[in-house]
Design a protein that fits this description.
The chain contains 14 helices and no strands. By secondary structure, it is mainly α.
């Protein structure tokens, strides 16, 4: 029989999980919704396709640069503190985007959103891991990832509808309202989740990693030019320097021993990089494909893109439970293989491709990514 204290603890855990899940919902919702709005944004600001790509890229660039520092700050300054700072920064960038007068300012505000998003993402899984014991962790992580898939489902669907009937700025208004419950609930987090380990912050590591990521990002974008090749060479040199510096830092930004001594951690993160990079590109490219090549309205394009994440919603919790019973790596590997087959299929799209065939590919991809995500995250978190 559950005591009153145990029931209160259970309620508190569920409430905190809901708050974390809402925050987790924000990033993919805005990202996928904005993808559907890119043609409308381009029309308002007379922006070309390259500039429109930076609306998504500015957010991703900020997220990648600040993800490691945000995680390290969570360890040293308290995960709840950094998490709540992240929701403030994210909401501020969202509100500013509503009133942006130029495409350049919109890119800046998306970058600010990315900083806040990195602070949220870097600490959300750590909070869940600290909140739930190993036997329940797979389900909690699966539920959290389900929120991601729900956001990925609603993002294109609502993004298309909001853009078509209320204008693209309404996407940021809706996002700001979603953030409000988390914004005003910081005091509900229990103190033990905000434990701190006072350490010196690795500023050399931050400078090197940020410059490395920036060179790599810009170099890949301009890989067919001499300047792009030079940036990629600089990224390699900076990568070697970062590795050597981190080996000798007392509190490194990235403990390189995690990558050299923990094969599961290294392999799981490499797999996540490959899988999520390809999956994110699917949403971005298909949004442009359906509207520019196939002539779909934003609402119709968003409805078609609903298929992929909608399937993931049903798969993720089951995959999380399965990962609690057998080796997570086996489940993730099966999902990765299925996803790879679908990526090859999507690479053959043309202006005459059957829409039914496209929907079928997205559905199977949803199964593959669903079976990959939760188990792979469980493997990373241990």
């Amino acid at each position: 029989m559950i005591t009153e204290q145990e029931e209160e603890s259970l309620y508190s855990r569920r409430f905190i999980l809901i708050l974390i899940t809402i925050a987790t919902f924000l990033n993919p919702f805005t990202g996928t919704a904005v993808n559907l709005a890119l043609p409308a944004i381009g029309a308002e600001f007379s922006a070309d396709a390259t500039t429109l790509a930076w609306i998504s890229s500015a957010y991703l660039l900020a997220s990648v640069i600040f993800l490691l520092p945000a995680g390290r700050l969570g360890d040293s300054r308290g995960r709840v503190t950094v998490f709540m700072t992240g929701i403030v920064v994210y909401t501020a960038g969202t509100i500013l985007a509503v009133f942006t007068p130029t495409i350049g300012m919109l890119l800046l505000f998306r970058f600010i959103q990315g900083i806040g998003g990195a602070m949220l993402y870097a600490n959300s899984m750590a909070l869940i891991t600290h909140l739930y014991p190993p036997g329940e962790r797979g389900y909690a992580i699966g539920l959290n990832i389900t929120a991601v898939y729900a956001a990925l489902s609603l993002g294109p669907f609502l993004g298309g509808i909001l853009t078509q009937f209320f204008g693209w700025r309404s996407i940021f208004i809706v996002t700001a309202f979603i953030a409000v419950p988390v914004l005003f609930s910081g005091g509900r987090f229990p103190a033990f989740l905000n434990d701190r380990h006072r350490e010196d912050f690795d500023m050399p590591g931050l400078v090197l990693s940020s410059t490395l990521i920036l060179c790599l990002f810009l170099g890949l974008a301009r890989a067919n030019t001499p300047g792009g090749v030079a940036l990629l060479v600089a990224a390699i040199v900076l990568g070697v320097a970062f590795y050597r510096v981190e080996q000798h830092r007392p509190s490194p930004l990235l403990p390189v021993s995690l990558l050299t001594s923990n094969r599961v951690f290294a392999a799981s993160n490499a797999a996540a990089l490959i899988n999520y990079s390809a999956t994110y590109a699917v949403g971005f490219l298909l949004s442009l494909y359906l509207q520019y090549i196939r002539g779909y309205e934003p609402a119709a394009a968003g409805t078609l893109l609903l298929v992929l994440p909608a399937i993931q919603i049903f798969i993720a919790p089951a995959a999380g439970r399965l990962a609690d019973r057998i080796r997570p790596g086996l489940v993730a590997a099966a999902g990765m293989a299925l996803s790879a087959a679908c990526f090859f299929g999507l690479a053959t799209l043309s202006e005459t491709t059957s829409i039914t065939g496209l929907v079928a590919l997205l559905a199977v991809l949803g199964v593959g990514v669903g079976f990959f995500s939760s188990p792979n995250t469980s493997a990373v978190m241990g």
